[in-house]
Amino acid sequence: MELQKIRGLLEKYDAGETSLAEENTLREYFQHNEVPADLESYRLIFTFSEKTGRQKMEREVELPSQTKGKKYLWTAIAASIIVVVGLFFFQNKPLEMNHSDLGTVQDKEEALQKSMEALKMVSELMNEGKEDLIYLKEFNNTKDKFIKTE
Question: Which parts of the chain span the membrane according to its record (predicted)?
Answer without folding.
Answer: 72-90
